[in-house]
Automatic annotation (TrEMBL):
Keywords: Glycoprotein, Immunoglobulin domain, Signal. Belongs to the immunoglobulin superfamily. CEA family. It comes from the Eukaryota. It comes from Cricetulus griseus. Residues 35-130, 154-250 form the Immunoglobulin V-set domain. Residues 1-24 form the signal peptide. PANTHER family: CARCINOEMBRYONIC ANTIGEN-RELATED CELL ADHESION MOLECULE 1, CARCINOEMBRYONIC ANTIGEN-RELATED CELL ADHESION MOLECULE 19. This is Carcinoembryonic antigen-related cell adhesion molecule 3-like. The keyword ATP-binding does not apply.
Amino acid sequence: MVKKKVNMKEKASLLILWLPSTVAQLTIESVPPISAEGDNVLLFVHNLPENVQAFSWYTGVMALKSREIARYEIATNSRTLGTAHSGRATVFNNGSLLIKNVTRKDSGYYILQTLDTHLRSEITRVEFFVHAPIFGFKKHATPSKPTVELVPPMVAEEDNVLFLVRNLPEKLQGFAWHKGVLPLDHFKIASHAILINSSMLAHKYYGRATIYTNGSLLLQNVTQKDTGIYTLRTISADLRSEWAIMHLQVNSK
């Protein structure tokens, strides 16, 4: 029998072939990471595995049934509210959780528990902090923040939908709409520069999107691919940024 010598380079190549491919780890980002009372907080999930069949959100450091906020079944696109649901939380199909009008009692740990197709369970924790209004100003003494309303509230394929903006701040340099929560150029839908009264649309939204000077956005002939989170970001004259988040669900006809 003839033995073949394997050099170090070949060994390294064989090792690389046998190593399992790396998979992006599920992480949760609090947007914003530190919030004031009255803010909306999005616990944004990155890299939700494709083999997840269901997930649940809990308050606290343990996944107790009495602490369950909501459960989502991916196959049936169904949501079940838990006993710890406050009436201010919305769970999205990408795993993210939106909590509206937060108070200091909302501060603390939150748990996302995922269940894959092999019935294996994984737990990921995140924490965010809610502080009182700065310098003791009461919430009603501060300017109203922008909010977004869907018109109509229920949308089906081929419908037109308006993201109607209320309380757009004054003295803005401009604003922009993005698909998702990250302000990345390839997620941008449209932007408007107030000083020069100029609007720009992303190429793939030509003929289908219209941005208005009051901040509102019109999407025409929507499809199920348009389902997801949409974010309005404003830039003030002193370069401060605020955002409003809305989830669009496009139903089949």
